[in-house]
Each structure stands twice: as C-alpha cells, then as structure tokens.
Design brief:
Strand content of chain A: 25-35%
Largest sheet of chain A: 7 strands, mixed
Mean pLDDT of chain A: 93
CATH architecture of the largest domain in chain B: Roll
CATH superfamily of the largest domain in chain A: Aldehyde oxidase/xanthine dehydrogenase, molybdopterin binding domain
Strand content of chain B: 15-25%
CATH class of the largest domain in chain A: Alpha Beta
Oligomer: heterodimer
Low-confidence stretches of chain A: 746-758
Strand order of the largest sheet of chain A: 3-5-1-12-9-10-11
CATH topology of the largest domain in chain B: Ubiquitin-like (UB roll)
Low-confidence stretches of chain B: 154-159
CATH topology of the largest domain in chain A: Aldehyde Oxidoreductase, domain 4
Shape of chain B: globular
C-alpha cells in the first residue's frame, strides 16, 4: 500500500475558517452601489391562459426602474434556443403551474418592489388542470403541453400526451420466472414531492458595465452553465457575460436550475443598474425544482432458497410542469434499484409524466431513492415471508465483478459484497433494539457515477508553493480534496497549496458539480496538471544539473537524478531560480480530463433502529449506520459528512417531508409546515467507508455525495415494519399515517387536500 | 419615516437610521454590511439569522431594528478576538462540522448562548438546544460533536 502524505487524511476544509467567521460570501451577500431590488410576479393558478398583461401602472410608480415580461426576452422571440422551451423563464401565453414567473421588476427598495408587483395587471383565464399523475396519463386528461409527444411510446398513437417519456426494458421471460418462484409479492409504493431543502434560498445579482457587459453572482452548480443560460435568454455572445464564483449554501441538485439569473440580467440591462434578486422560502418551495413524486407498482418473486426469479416493475414519475431530464429518471437512475441483484427475468416500464404542479428536477441521486424505496421494501417483505435474514437474502442475490448489469454491460471492480459483509459484522457487534415498538431495518442502494470533461491550472510560486485555479463550484468540499491532491503529488504541506475558484474568464473550464462527479472530473484534471508541472520541473532541473531529462524524477518535493540521490534540487530552489533573469522561466501547468462514459458503481448499505410511539404514531430514529463503498476517500471526514447529511435528508423524506397540494398549489411552503429533520430528530450516524478502489480514476476514487441517500427511505420503512409489524407503503410515514395504519384506520380523506401523487 | 437607533454591535457603538418596518436582520446585513448573518426563511423557522441580543440567541428576522435601540448585539463577525478564534469556531473547524456554511454562524451563536447557561451539557441537551437551527448538509452529527468538544474545553465553558 502506498504511503501517502495528504490524500486519505482529513485536514480541515480550506473554506472552513471563512465560514465560521462570517467572511464567506454567498450570492445574496453581494451588495453593490446603486443596486436595485428585483421581485417576480408569479401565477396564482395551476393552469391558466394569460389573456392580458398590463404593466403600465407598476411602471408609473416612482422608484420602479425596470419591468420585464416574456415579450422583453430576446431568447423567447422564437423557439429553439432556450433550454426547457416549454417552461421559459417568463410565461408566454400560458402559466402551467402555480408559482411560474409571469413578470419581473426592479425598484430602488425591496418593499417598493413588493408593492409594485400588485400594480401589474394580469387577466387570467383558468384552464382545466390536472394534478393527479395517474389521471394525467389518461387519454381524456387536459393536455398541459400541446406540442409534447411521448418519446418512445411504442405501439401507441403519438398524439399529444402528458406522458413525455416512456421506456420498457425486458430480459428473459417474466411470467416463467414468476412460475418458478415459491413466493410472489405484488405491492404499490408511493412517495411525495420533496424539496432539496438547501438552507440558502435562491439569489442572483447582476451588474452591468457602461459597455453593456454583464457580471453575475448567483448560487449555482456550474458558473459556465449559468453563463450559457443567460447568453441564450439574452442572445448575447458568451464574451459579454462574466459569472463570478460565490459560496453555495447547499445545492443537492436543486441549483442546476437557474430561474433568477436571466431575470436579474434582463432587469439590469433594462435599468442600466445592478439588480439583486432573492427568493422567499415560499418561492423556493413553490417554484424551484423539487424531486418528483412517484407511484411504483412492483411484483417480485423468489424461490424458497432465497434466489430472485423475476421482477416486474412499473415506475411513474410525476414531474409537475417540467419535462426536464427526460428518460434519465425512469431509465438509468430508476434502474439502480434493481441493479444490485442478479435478476434472470425482468420487465421495467417507466413513465415520466407532466402535471400542473411545481416542476421537478434533480435531487441527490435523482429517481433512485424512490425506486429503491419500492424495491428494497419488497426485498424486505420477501425476506420476512421466508424468515430469512434480510442481509443474508441480499448477499445471496448480490452482484459481483463480471455479473451483468440490467443493460447488459459487465460489472468491473465493485465493493457490494464487501459493504454488505461490513454491515453484517457491524450489526453482529451491536445489541438489537429491545422492547416493544422498536425495530431494526436494513436496505441497500446503488448509484453509478460518471466523469465529465473538466480542467485545472497550477502556478508554481517563487517559494515553491502552488496556486491551483479551478472553475468547479464547490458544493461538497471539493476545493479541499483538490488541494490535497496537489499537496500529495508534490510532497508539500497542504498549507503551501492555495486553491481558488475563478470566474468564467479566469478559471479553466469545469464541468457541472453534480452527479457525484466533481472530484472525479475536475480532480482528474488537477492530477494531470500536477503531472504537467512535474514534467516541466524535471526538464528544467535536468538542464540545471546538466543531465538528460529522462534521468531525473520528481520525488518527495525534489527533482533528483535517478540512481544518484545525492544529486538533487528542491522544489523551492528550482521555483525561486526559475524566475530570475538567468532562470529558465516560470512554470505553470494545466490538465484536462475527458468525459468518461463508463459508469462507476457505488454501493451503500444502511441500518436503522427505530421506536414508534403507539400513542402518537411518531417514529423516532434511535441509531443509524451507513456503510459505503467509496473507493479511496481523499478526505474521510468530508466523506463522512456527505454520508451523514444524505442520511438525514433521507430520514426527512421517509418520515416528515412532502408537498401538500390544493388545486395544484403547495399549501405547506414554510419550514414550519414542510418539516425537515432537526438535530433532535436524528441520532449520531455511524459511517463505515469500505474502500474498494475503482479501476478508472486516479487514486481509485468512486464518487460520494449521492449514493448514501439511495437506501435511506427503505431502511427507515423496513425498521418501522419491524417495530409495528405492519408495512407502510407510502411516504412520508407521518405520525397520522402510522397511527392510521396501526389502528386499522385509513387516513382521513379530505377531498380538497391531496399529497403530490394522488 | 426613519428613526435613529443607537446599538452596540460587536463591541462598537453604532448609530443607524432605520425604517419602522426594517428587521434587525436587514439592518445588520444591508446597513452595517455584516453579511455573516444569513437569511434562510424570513419567518423564524430556520435559525440561520441567529444573533445574540444582550447575550441571548434570537432570530434577527423576527426582531424589528427599532426594538434594539440601546441594546447590545453580537454577530458571527464579533466572535473571534483578532486572529484568535472562539473555541466554538475552532471546534467546528476541527470536527468537520462546517459544510456549506450557511447555517454555521447561526448554530455557533445559538451554541454560545446555550453553553453559557449550561457549560457541561449532554448530547441530548445539545441537540435540543439547537433544534431551532436547521442544517441540511451535515445530519448534525459533527455539529453536535463540535459543540460537545467546545464545552469540554475550559474556554468553551467560560467564553
């Protein structure tokens, strides 16, 4: 095993000191001279035609400096250029969900801006809406996007539909598989719309120079994506827009979407002054991109000895008014629920459906958590029926290197079995939950990470320290990981590495910080930039020492002549002397990584002990353990933090979180009514990092952020089953829902209030 | 209508002209440019805007600026003494309790007020003390450990 100096250790994050002292700047902290305050007028209706939109009275109010409607957006004059054209940054003829932006304005004071919104006159004609995903799939449902055609809906009339993506995958003979099974279980699982819940609301500040060039600060997952989006809406060349880096107060996929930055840019352009826009928490809930609600029908069969014979699953994702991420959800990601196991016969059908509700988008391991909730609940039920240990049942069916994934490719190096065995050992050493109404649940989860093209740049300073510049937004501690890679490669202390996130003009291009890919994509580029610098240093050192370039190597902070360790020159010495008149010139290095289509699987296995209060129905999580095949953990403390945060989000998803809709309008858009876990709702979360190296990326890293939320929903549901002896198939498992189940009553029906999926 | 208030912020006497409807949070962030205090919800449910008002933790989004006339405020910017971090700040760094950092100022200030009233808390007491401070990144694990660690240090008990 290689002895490492920095990688694999847990130094404090490089950004921590700014964050504990209040110096770190987030989007809403940017305050510019002469700045205006922008606000958005939003549709109050789930589905409505905009018959008249008159901004004259608002415009006449003193202090209102700019108003924009869809008619003012260059990119909306004809279609084809803007992303998600069916859901433009400002509604055109129709509003498709309650909360959709209809107009935006900027005023000299935030209160004035709020007042001015009331002066914009909009005449709506309410249209029939559809908010129930199953009703939306019917042929007689009101059509939300008339131009939408279901892709791939083979064998069916390709007329207008609310189904925007359909997939079907088959292997073997499902019915024959069920015929061979000793036990076949059929269940329907439902999950609610949930929000990423980043603590920082959405914000954007746009400044405009006298020559019209725009600068933008906004919470984001890619400054380069923001630049491109704004350029498309404003029809500007990329060179006219600069996006600045800011700290991001939580993202979890939710900040891939940008609503405010084009609006702030348009308003700044129109007013000729900087404009700042910040969403209220209610706007964040109603109008950003929560995770889709689902209905999942699943039938699974197994033989008495615990071998799965067939799985038949139909997954329906309720995307609200968004057609974003077509297919990705139902296919590739939903797939992850089944891929941990050898399943000889399967049929998977996936439907992505639009409804007149808040549009959905990516949230940490998009779609996998919902699908895995269904599959892992089903696995638990089968194990119960057979009186088999649930981990033993999974071990019996677990995939290993060489097995086929559901799309026919072969698994490379994976650590599923190791992770399962680690959890088996952990639980063997832990007392079971004792007492009535207590229970333990386990579940597994899979997520596959990719890698995208990215780049990095290193300056060697005169004292031998290094300045690393990247363009990757840091949403998970990646800056620190990159600095550790540089320190490791040059054998220098971490304090000698400065890492800076540049703006879109000073930073080398970086791919989006998403998909558990950042440390892989940009980290690989950083690694290569290090090699580039080393090569240059070696060449220059060889020249100085008058030996052949091939005869030297970089070792422990020095360039030394191979086989003559006494003949060497230190990094600091080399760096200093390179700059003088007699020197060989500065050294800067760069590295690029290329997209890597081959997915790298990451497995997670989790266990929870819970207690259910029989009187109130409240579920309390007593203890929690999470094991994960992380590949090499560059910074184990940061990796643990990612896992613990994901588990807490999963606990919220399982127990308390969910949108409540009335006529398509979210009714619980505050943190009081949309209940995210507090410190009192979660226990310490034990983490186990199972470091089975991946075979494709430097250091064998796999990707960390998303996998740990994948099994959590089912882990909690399985533990609740153990505690109360009954299965809850619908999330969230609120006290009301648990009581209704345990007392044999159905949840009280209120015809006007419904969860996202009903 | 504006009114002048005098308020001691991080040990410094400040005079500010405020509107009756302005919150303490807005005055801190936009008039005094102390943007370390964050706004996460604006309705007192997330704790990101926590500051100390005469030593007690309050949600500054729920306090009108005119109410603090003649009082003393501590924000996250006022916690370190020069380059010397407060033990809680140091413990948050050392324990890896800082992730996105948005909730961090509020949690640290809540914890400071709490440790002054309860210098040797149990895990459960710490969890209950910060129940009004939402965090979405950490699962609270390392935050609770950091607060317990700061409480264990002598300076943590008598900040």
């Amino acid at each position: 095993m290689t002895e490492r100096s920095s990688v694999g250790k847990s130094p404090p994050r490089v950004d921590a000191i700014d964050k504990v002292t209040g110096r770190a700047l987030y989007g809403a902290d940017i305050i510019l001279p002469n700045m205006l305050h922008g606000r958005v007028l939003r549709s109050p209706y789930a589905h409505a035609r905009i018959k008249r939109l008159d901004t004259a009275r608002a415009r006449a109010l003193e202090g209102v400096m700019a108003i924009v409607t869809s008619a003012d957006v260059p990119g909306l004059r004809d279609s084809g250029e803007v992303p998600d054209p069916m859901l433009p940054c400002l509604a055109k003829e129709k509003a498709l969900f309650a909360g959709q932006p209809v107009a935006a304005l900027a005023a000299i004071d935030p209160h004035l801006a709020e007042e001015a919104l009331d002066l914009i006159e909009v005449e709506y004609e309410e249209l029939p809406s559809v908010t129930d995903v199953l009703l939306a799939m019917r042929p007689d449902a009101p059509i939300i996007h008339p131009s939408l055609r279901a892709e791939n809906l083979a064998g069916k009339d390709n007329g207008p539909s609310n189904i925007f993506w359909y997939v079907k995958y088959l292997r073997g003979d499902v019915e024959a598989g069920f015929a061979k099974a000793d036990i076949v279980l059929h269940n329907t699982f439902r999950t609610s719309t949930v929000h990423q819940g980043h603590l920082e609301p959405r914000a954007a500040v746009a400044d405009i120079a006298p020559d019209g060039k725009l600068s933008i600060w906004t919470d984001n997952q890619s400054i380069f994506k923001v630049r491109e989006l704004v350029a498309r809406y404003l029809r500007l060349p990329l060179s006219r827009i600069k996006v600045m880096p800011v700290e991001v107060g939580g993202a979890f996929g939710g900040k891939e979407h940008q609503q405010l930055s084009p609006l702030a840019a348009l308003l700044a352009q129109k007013a000729g002054r900087p404009v700042r826009m910040v969403m209220t928490r209610s706007e964040v809930f109603k109008a950003t991109r929560p995770s889709p609600a689902t209905v999942i029908f699943i039938r699974a069969g197994a033989t008495k000895d615990g071998s799965l014979t067939a799985v038949d699953v139909t997954m329906i994702y309720d995307f609200g008014a968004s057609t974003g991420m077509p297919g990705l959800e139902a296919i590739h990601f939903g797939f992850n629920a089944l891929n941990p196991y050898r399943i000889p016969n399967f049929r998977i059908e996936g439907y992505d459906v639009v409804t007149n509700k808040a549009p959905s988008g990516p949230y940490r391991a998009p779609a996998a958590a919902q699908a895995t909730f269904a599959m892992e609940s089903q696995m638990d039920l089968i194990a119960r029926e057979m009186a088999m240990d649930p981990l033993e049942f999974r071990l019996r069916n677990a995939v290993a290197k060489g097995d086929l994934t559901l799309n026919g490719s072969q698994y490379s190096e994976i650590g599923f079995r190791e992770t399962l065995e680690r959890m088996v050992r952990y639980l063997a050493g832990k007392d079971g939950p004792k007492g009535k109404s207590r229970g333990r649940g386990v579940a597994c989860g899979l997520w596959t990470t990719m890698s995208m093209g990215s780049s990095a740049h290193i300056n060697v300073n005169t004292d031998g320290s290094m300045t690393l510049v990247v363009g990757a937004t840091d949403i998970s501690g990646t800056r620190t990981a990159f600095a550790q890679i540089v320190a490791e490669e040059f054998g220098i202390p971490l304090k000698d590495v400065t890492v800076t996130i540049g703006d879109t003009e000073t930073a080398p291009f970086a791919s989006i910080s998403a998909g558990s890919m950042t440390t892989r994509s940009t980290g690989k580029a950083v690694y290569r930039a290090c090699q580039d610098v080393k090569e240059q240093l070696c060449r220059k050192a060889a020249l100085r020492m008058k030996v052949e370039a091939g005869d030297v190597e970089f070792l422990c902070g020095r360039v030394q002549v191979r086989d003559a360790p006494d003949k060497s020159i230190s990094l600091a010495e080399l760096a200093r002397e390179n700059f003088g008149l007699a020197g060989a010139g500065p050294v800067t290095g760069s590295g690029c990584s290329e997209p890597l289509g081959k997915p790298t699987p990451v497995f997670a296995v989790q266990a929870a002990d819970v207690e259910v209060d029989k009187e109130t129905g409240k579920v309390r999580v007593l203890s929690y353990a999470a094991a994960q095949d992380t590949g090499l953990a560059i910074n184990p403390t940061i990796v643990e933090g990612q896992i613990q945060g994901a588990v807490a989000q999963g606990i919220g998803w399982a127990l308390t979180e969910g949108y409540v809709f009335q006529d398509g309008v979210m009714k619980n858009s505050t943190f009081q009514d949309y209940r995210m876990p507090t410190a009192a709702d979660v226990p310490f979360i034990d983490t186990m990092l199972v470091e089975v190296a991946s075979d494709v990326i430097p250091y064998g890293i796999r990707g960390v952020g998303e996998p740990p939320i994948v099994p959590t929903l089912a882990t909690i549901a399985n533990a609740v089953h153990s505690a109360v002896g009954m299965r809850l198939t619908e999330l969230p498992m609120t006290p009301e829902a648990v009581l209704a189940k345990t007392r044999g009553r159905e949840e009280p029906e209120d015809a006007s209030l419904s969860r996202g999926h009903i | 209508m504006k009114k002048q208030i005098r308020v001691r912020v991080n040990g410094q006497e400040r005079e500010v002209m405020v509107e009756a409807r302005q919150t303490l949070l807005d005055v801190l962030r936009y008039d005094l440019r102390l943007t370390g205090t964050k706004e996460g919800c604006g309705d007192g449910n997330c704790g990101s805007c926590t500051v100390l008002l005469d030593g007690e933790a309050v949600n500054s989004c729920l306090v009108f600026a005119v109410e603090v006339d003649g009082h003393e405020i501590t924000t996250i910017e006022g916690l370190a003494e020069g380059a010397r971090l407060h033990p809680l700040q140091q413990a948050f760094i050392d324990e890896g309790a800082v992730q996105c950092g948005f909730c961090t100022p509020g949690v640290i200030l809540t914890a400071k007020a709490f440790l002054e009233s309860n210098p040797c808390p149990t895990e459960g007491e710490v969890r209950f003390a910060i129940v009004g401070n939402l965090c979405r990144c950490t699962g609270y694990d390392k935050i609770v450990r950091a607060i317990l660690k700061a409480a264990g240090s002598r300076e943590g008990r008598h900040p």
